[in-house]
């Protein structure tokens, strides 16, 4: 086994696998109302190809965590079987799912039975009218049902990911935290990142970590959690003495690139060594041309060796990736 290390001493053990670029919401900070030009089906990895690359990562490259993302991974028909086959690997990786929870009420039990360990659900508001404004869909009740089903199925801790948008829901952080605390969900606020398809992100329009903390501290006492953060993206704070916590993922204003342990595989079989990378490494073509598992592992190692020290958002020459978040995977 050879670790997925880069030139700066970081080792990737957390694999994010995008299963599709398609999504059944149209969140304003992610994609336009009409959607995007989806990947052609023939360019997407088959279920067997997805599992094969995950197997290479786990058995040959030391990956210990596999998170399934999208787009929206619940729209991938083979999801449950992919989870089952991933959970059966040795050594068994921790498995998780990042989802908008539409349809999770129907699938949570099957996913848990297949070996999924936990879920992260994207939910930016607890007000149905604001949910409709952000997502352009009237599906808030379905998300709530999905969260409840995930908790009942034992897919915990159930985590909620929220993005605050200036002038839309930036006044709702305390309400969202209180709602999650009542239900035992772990809330994480995420600074909006320059990964929208429209390329409309601006630093001035982004609600910062400092602003989020200031809003929460009007209602709660927050102190940094005692445990070391390590490579975790979220900076955790005890709420009113704990044990409950709230997290802030401040990718822009408090970057944590120096401890990054993540690598990404897109739905069409490209390795991305950074969320903001402008270059990708093609495993799909090599695999379909007959590459062995050892050869695929070597390509993956080469891809990781070129990882930059940071995402470079503060650099004047920074350019947003050509692919939006929906095509990269979270």
How would you describe this structure to a colleague?
This protein has 10 helices and 14 strands. By secondary structure, it is an alpha/beta fold. It has a single domain, classed as Aldolase class I (TIM Barrel, Alpha-Beta Barrel), CATH 3.20.20.70. It has a 12-stranded mixed β-sheet. A two-stranded antiparallel ribbon has the order 1-2. α1 (47-61) links the parallel β3 (14-18) and β4 (65-69). The radius of gyration is 19 Å and the shape is globular. It starts with a strand and ends with a helix. The model has no long low-confidence stretch (mean pLDDT 91).
Features:
single chain; 330 residues; alpha/beta; TIM Barrel; twelve-stranded mixed β-sheet; two-stranded antiparallel ribbon; 10 helices; 14 strands; 17% strand; globular
Q: Which percent band covers the strand fraction?
A: 15-25%
Number of helices: 10
Using DSSP, what is the number of strands?
14
Structural class: alpha/beta
Q: Fill in the CATH topology.
A: TIM Barrel
- List the helices and strands in order: EEEHEHEHEHHEHEHEEEEEEHHH
Query: What's the CATH H-level homologous superfamily?
Result: Aldolase class I
Gross CATH architecture: Alpha-Beta Barrel
- From the structure provided, what is the oligomeric state, counting identical versus distinct chains? single chain
Contiguous low-pLDDT stretches (5 residues minimum) are none
> How many structurally independent domains?
1
Q: Helicity, in percent? A: 25-40%
**Terminal Cα separation, in Å?**
26 Å
Q: In the CATH hierarchy, what is the class? A: Alpha Beta
Main sheet characteristics = 12 strands, mixed
Query: How are the strands of the biggest sheet laid out side by side?
Result: 9-10-11-8-7-6-5-4-3-12-13-14
- The gyration radius over C-alpha positions equals 19 Å
Give the overall silhouette. Answer: globular
Kindly state the mean pLDDT as a whole number? 91
């Amino acid at each position: 086994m050879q670790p997925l290390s880069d030139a700066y001493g970081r080792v990737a053990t957390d694999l994010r696998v995008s299963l599709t670029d398609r999504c059944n919401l149209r969140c304003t900070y992610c994609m336009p109302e009409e959607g995007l030009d989806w990947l052609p089906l023939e360019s997407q990895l088959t279920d067997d190809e997805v599992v094969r690359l995950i197997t290479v990562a786990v058995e040959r490259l030391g990956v210990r965590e596999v998170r399934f993302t999208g787009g929206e991974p619940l729209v991938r028909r083979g999801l449950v079987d992919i989870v089952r086959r991933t959970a059966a690997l040795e050594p068994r990786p921790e498995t998780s799912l990042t989802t908008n929870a539409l349809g999770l009420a129907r699938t949570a039990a099957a996913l848990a039975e297949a070996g999924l360990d936990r879920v992260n659900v994207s939910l930016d508001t607890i007000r149905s009218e604001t949910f409709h404004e952000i997502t352009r869909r009237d599906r808030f009740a379905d998300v709530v049902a999905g969260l409840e089903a995930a908790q009942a199925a034992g897919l915990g801790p159930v985590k909620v990911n929220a993005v605050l948008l200036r002038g839309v829901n930036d006044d709702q952080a305390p309400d969202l935290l209180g709602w999650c605390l009542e239900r035992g969900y772990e809330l994480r606020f995420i600074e909006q990142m320059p990964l929208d398809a429209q390329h409309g992100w601006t630093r001035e329009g982004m609600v910062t970590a400092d602003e989020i903390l200031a809003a929460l501290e009007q209602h709660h006492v927050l102190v940094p959690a005692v445990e070391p953060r390590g490579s975790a993206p979220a900076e955790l704070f005890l709420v009113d003495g704990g044990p409950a916590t709230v997290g802030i993922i401040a990718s822009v204003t408090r970057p944590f690139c120096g401890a990054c342990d993540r690598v990404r595989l897109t739905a069409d079989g490209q390795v991305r060594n950074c969320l903001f990378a402008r270059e990708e490494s093609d495993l799909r073509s090599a695999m379909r041309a007959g590459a062995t598992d050892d050869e695929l592992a070597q390509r993956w190692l080469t891809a990781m060796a070129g990882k930059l020290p940071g995402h470079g958002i503060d650099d004047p020459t920074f350019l947003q990736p050509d692919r939006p978040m929906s095509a990269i995977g979270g």
